[in-house]
Write a structure and sequence with these properties.
Elements: H1 21-35, H2 40-50, H3 54-63, E1 74-78, H4 84-92, E2 97-102, H5 105-114, E3 121-125, E4 136-142, H6 151-164, E5 165-176, H7 182-196, H8 202-212, H9 221-231, E6 234-241, E7 244-250, H10 253-258
Parallel strand pairs: 1-2, 1-4, 2-3, 4-5
Antiparallel strand pairs: 5-7, 6-7
Length: 261
């Protein structure tokens, strides 16, 4: 059984942590319901105060689509939120067709607004754990798969994604993947606090980590890689900053071994 981790200040490094995107979902739920709109500028600003290296992280995740050799690839965004990752994917691959899945109708309002100028976007209101996964060239996710609470559910999703991908397909996830050792996780927690304290007081930063603890589940990077490999993927770490990382799973394992650095 894998161990997940917490960055709550009780010092038990690694058992369930933060809620960045979901917290913003709650804060915007009234305005979305009442006015059918989301202030995307505010959302974008807030998420960057919560997640260290957010801009670079989604950029690296989107850039992974360069490994998809086909033209006009179908890209499925699991937990699309307001569409920030999908927008970055379209910058990386303007020829892509986006299929966004999210259970929150308010988030889909934001995604629809953000991606309004894109030509090929389909938005599906559904829990990605329950939704039928379409055949596609790539699955992408950014700070969304930490809502999966058990190892069994996550491994099952990885296997379903592997089976839905075309033979040359790729799976990309950007999220918090702590180190396995307590001392490493504590260092990563301090780094996260330092980032939060660029925008919040020390007390507020601690309160953010406390309020997020127990909401989301973060499994160690090594476990995530092992589960991708068990599903059949050739796994690669494309980017790493403290506890946050971008991981890619290549369905074609030979391609994974020969991709240039």
């Amino acid at each position: 059984m894998a161990t997940s981790f917490s960055f709550a200040s009780n010092g038990k490094a690694i058992v369930e942590a933060r809620r960045a995107e979901s917290r913003i979902k709650e804060e915007h739920s009234v305005s979305v319901a009442g006015h059918l709109r989301i202030d995307l500028d505010e959302y974008d600003a807030r998420i960057r105060t919560f997640v260290p290296g957010y801009e670079e992280m989604i950029g690296r995740a989107a850039a992974a689509l360069r490994f998809v050799a086909v033209s006009s690839p179908t890209v499925v965004d699991l937990g699309i939120g307001t569409g920030a990752l999908s927008a970055a994917c379209l910058q990386s691959r303007p020829d892509a067709r986006i299929v966004g899945v999210d259970s929150d109708p308010g988030m889909l309002v934001g995604a629809r607004a953000r991606l309004a100028e894109a030509g090929h976007v389909e938005l599906i209101e559904s829990d990605f754990l329950a939704a039928a996964l379409p055949k596609c060239d790539a699955f992408v996710a950014c700070i969304s798969l930490h809502h999966i609470r058990t190892e069994e559910e996550k491994r099952a999703l990885y296997l379903r994604c592997f089976e839905a991908l075309v033979p040359s397909g790729i799976f990309v996830t950007a999220d918090c993947f702590p180190g396995e050792r307590a001392r490493v996780a504590e260092y990563q927690r301090e780094a996260w606090l330092a980032h939060l304290m660029q925008s919040y007081t020390a007390k507020e930063a601690e309160q953010h980590l406390e309020s997020w603890a127990g909401e989301d589940v973060y499994f160690p990077l090594a476990d995530e890689i092992a589960w991708l490999q068990a599903a059949g993927f050739g796994a690669e770490v494309l980017w790493r900053r403290d506890a946050f990382a971008v991981i890619a799973g290549f369905k074609d394992q030979e391609a994974a071994r020969t991709q240039p650095a």
